[in-house]
Each structure stands twice: as structure tokens, then as C-alpha cells.
Write a structure and sequence with these properties.
Helix content is 40%, strand content 18%.
Length: 292
């Protein structure tokens, strides 16, 4: 029988710890942490995600602000807003919600963010620090996954780990974190051109799916007793009692779960951990400023 990896529960515990730290900050008269977000356009998933981030900030006692802009804004306009947030001493950290409209370069936007305020951990400087094992802001989703593995005491040392998907946001940084000293997994990073992908995945003790393809990982691809982490969150049409959309992961949960030792649900698995990592990174930003 599989055990469900409950990201909601783990994230709630971390939020309680952060809220306790914020109360101490408030009691000593120090600056309250401030996390800001920029949302461009009206993508449904982004709207929901940013709304939850604002809710998280309120729960732990952070100050939060949200800047909303139409999808028609220019790249130059968005870069100007980032320059303003970089210079705003009241804002400790901020994010620019992805994806962005096609006429705006995500790479230019990420590089424009001050690495010291990079709550998402996407800036090349922070990724470089992660690669070399130096302290810094870790990418939110990979960091959240590492916290889940630690909380559930999932053994990674020497484990055969297959990461499906090589994005700069999840797959690549996660492959680095999983292979670092202290975690010590043997990692295979796969993608759409990987030969015999089914066979490669089926040999893994830990499978991490991050490709954005609903139900891609089937039961026949998973080894009995494997740990399966589903990062996928795709909105698909739903015509049940409440018609509209529902979130679907990259894993065929109902069939795959029967073969697993541990598995994350969608929603309620990785998503809450991504959000709580933004809070952790913001708190880290505050502490860095206080030390300087």
C-alpha cells in the first residue's frame, strides 16, 4: 500500500515556523518581511497561484503587494517595473509570475531581477551558487521537493533517480540537488529525445516527473516500490458536477499509485511546497540584509 506525500501538511508546518519567526521580528521592532509579485495577463493557473501566494503571506504575517498588468505591456515597460522593485528598500524579495506573453523574453526578465531579491531562485547567479554548493536562494519547486523527501525520510543515498523533463525551472536544478553531497542520488536527466525512456524510468527507485504532459507516466513505466514525485500541474477541461477545469499531474495517479511506496497527489503535493519556499527565500533575504 502506498503512502501519500502530503505537501499541504508539510507546507503548513513550515508556515507555522515562519509565522513564529515573524512574530519575533515584529516584537523586536524590526522590519516585517515584504514579498512582492508581478502578474502579466490573465492566465488562469497564474491567477490562482498568485492569489495563493498572497494568502500565504497574510497567514505568516508578511507584507505582500501585487502588481497586475495587461498582456499587451511591452518588455521595456516590465523591465522598468523590475528596476523599481530592485531599488525599493521596503521590498525584500519579489517574483515575476511565469509564463509571460510571447513577446517578452523570460530570460531578460529573470536576469534583470536583483539576485538578492530573487524569491523564485531563477537568476543565473543563484543557480550558479546552487551548482557549486554555495548558500543562496534555491529554485522554489526543486527546494520544496527536497524538503518533502527529507520530511518523509525517503532514502536517497545511492538511489537511482530519474528526472523526466529538463527545464531550467525544475528538471535541471533538481538533478543537481539530488546528486549533491548529503543527498547522493545517482541521477539520470531525461527528455523527449531520450532513447528507451520507458525502460529508463522503469529502473528508477525515485521518479520525478516534470514535463507538463497529463498522465504521461503510466503504471508500466514504474518499478514496484518506487517513490514518485509528480510536478505536473496542467489545467484540463472537466465536465463533472462542477464543470470547468481541474488540475492534472504528469502521472496516471490511480494506476501508478498501486505500485508505489510513496507518491505525491495533484493538487496538494508539490504545489504547496513551491509556495512555501518563496516565503523561506523572502525570510532569508531579510536575514541577509540584517547581517550586512
Amino acid at each position: 500500500m502506498y503512502k501519500l506525500i502530503d505537501g499541504k501538511h508539510v507546507a503548513a508546518g513550515i508556515r507555522l515556523e515562519i509565522a513564529s519567526e515573524v512574530r519575533k521580528i515584529r516584537e523586536t521592532g524590526r522590519k516585517i518581511p515584504h514579498l512582492a509579485a508581478i502578474l502579466v495577463g490573465n492566465d488562469g493557473s497564474s491567477e490562482t497561484y498568485v492569489a495563493n501566494k498572497v494568502k500565504d503571506c497574510h497567514e505568516v504575517g508578511f507584507k505582500s503587494t501585487l502588481q497586475r498588468y495587461e498582456s499587451s505591456i511591452t518588455e521595456a515597460f516590465l523591465l522598468e517595473r523590475i528596476v523599481e522593485l530592485n531599488a525599493n528598500t521596503d521590498v525584500d524579495a519579489f517574483i515575476v509570475q511565469l509564463p509571460l506573453p510571447k513577446h517578452i523574453s523570460e530570460y531578460k526578465i529573470i536576469e534583470a531581477i536583483d539576485p538578492a531579491k530573487d524569491a523564485d531562485g531563477f537568476h543565473p547567479e543563484n543557480l550558479g551558487r546552487m551548482m557549486t554548493g554555495l548558500p543562496g536562494f534555491l529554485p522554489a519547486t526543486p527546494s520544496g521537493i527536497m524538503d518533502l523527501l527529507k520530511y518523509y525520510d525517503i532514502q536517497t543515498r545511492g538511489a537511482n533517480c530519474v528526472v523526466v523533463g529538463r527545464s531550467n525551472i525544475v528538471g535541471r536544478p533538481l538533478s543537481v540537488l539530488m546528486s549533491q553531497k548529503g543527498t547522493d542520488a545517482t541521477v539520470t536527466l531525461t527528455h523527449s529525445l531520450t532513447k528507451n525512456l520507458d525502460k529508463v524510468v522503469s529502473e528508477a527507485e525515485i521518479v520525478i516527473a516534470a514535463i507538463g504532459s497529463p498522465g504521461f507516466i503510466k503504471a508500466g513505466m514504474v518499478k514496484k516500490g518506487a517513490v514518485v514525485i509528480d510536478v505536473g500541474t496542467t489545467r484540463v477541461p472537466y465536465t463533472g458536477p462542477k464543470s470547468g477545469y481541474r488540475l492534472t499531474g504528469d502521472v496516471d495517479f490511480e494506476n501508478v499509485a498501486q505500485k508505489c511506496s510513496f507518491i505525491t497527489p495533484v493538487p496538494g503535493g508539490v504545489g504547496p511546497m513551491t509556495r512555501v519556499t518563496l516565503l523561506k527565500n523572502t525570510l532569508l533575504a531579510v536575514k541577509k540584509v540584517e547581517i550586512l
